[in-house]
Amino acid sequence: MRFLRFLPSLLLCALCAAMPARAQGTDIPKLVKLVVPFAPGGSTDLVARQIAQELAERLKTTVVVDNRPGAGGTLGSEWVAQQPADGSVLLMGTVSTHAVAPSIYGKLRYEPLRDFTPLTPVATIPNVMVVRSELAVTNLKELVGLSRKPGANYSYASNGQGTSNHLAMELLKTATGLQAVHVPYKGSGPALTDTVAGHVTTMMDVVMTSYPYIKSGKLRPLAVTSPTRSPMLPDVPTVAEAGYPGFEAVVWFGLFAPPKMAPALQDRLNHELVAIIRGPKISEYLQQQGAQPAPMAPAEFASLIRNDIAKWAKVTAAAGIRPE
């Protein structure tokens, strides 16, 4: 009876003792590293820096961008996969690092779904097919037709072997019959520079980084790879509108944490990040860059990755690209 009399107090004490443990489960460290597995200045880096600033303000913590480039974004991604899942390290991954890489790198040291905690996509952005302005081509069908003539010797630039725009161009070649030899570069900057200079015939690049060259008249856009036209390039048709229905190859950026993050912390980070992405500042910034905000729940994000892995595996197989 004496035990029963004290039981409510004991239960209350136990509940109070448990509450700090639950609170700590969603605490954010005072310093958060947001890893960008590409060099500074690219589209992934630009988006990550905007997110980092908003995340720091919302969480009242310090968020620093940590660039760890190499091997098409896989080196930095691999490093994140080995870190503690306490919220101190996050990754700005892409379709290249988490959907294309498994088909390209035979010795990839991470599995995109098993070795990361998906948080949310940030945005999707179309590629745009561009040629140097001096080339006597005004639309995609003309480029395809000229490329198939004897002695054309057309080529196309990419951000590197196995990157998303490399695979997107291979998908386009299959869909259109375009004849062009792949010339890989170490990033979009040098690839765009050589396209402008005429060292390569064409390139497929995200609207965000190719737009300044289009605006200045140095490059001519032929088609965008999204299902609908880009608000930044309203006069440029989609590949489907250019005569090749069903084609789609968009780039996405997404946020990840190391594997086995506590569900409560994953949910909190998803909640905070979705609010940031949907907020007026980031939403407006993304749309100004030709991107569309695309936040979603972690389970939906995992499903997107799974479907894209299967899609790009088919593309690499059809193109005869063997894992390195």
Short description:
By secondary structure, the protein is α/β, with parallel strands linked by helices. The protein has helices at 2-24, 43-59, 74-81, 95-104, 140-147, 164-176, 188-197, 207-215, 263-278, 280-288, 298-319; strands at 31-36, 62-67, 89-94, 117-132, 155-158, 181-184, 202-206, 219-224, 250-257, 292-293.
Topology of helices and strands:
Blueprint: H1 2-24, E1 31-36, H2 43-59, E2 62-67, H3 74-81, E3 89-94, H4 95-104, E4 117-132, H5 140-147, E5 155-158, H6 164-176, E6 181-184, H7 188-197, E7 202-206, H8 207-215, E8 219-224, E9 250-257, H9 263-278, H10 280-288, E10 292-293, H11 298-319
Parallel strand pairs: 1-2, 1-3, 5-6, 5-7
Antiparallel strand pairs: 3-9, 4-7, 4-8, 4-9, 4-10
Keywords summarizing the entry:
324 residues; alpha/beta; 10 strands
Describe the overall structure.
- This protein is an alpha/beta fold.
- The chain is built from 11 helices and 10 strands.
- Strands 1, 2, 3, 4, 5, 6, 7, 8, 9 and 10 form a 10-stranded mixed sheet that branches.
- Helix 4 crosses helix 11.
- The radius of gyration is 23 Å and the shape is globular.
- The termini are far apart.
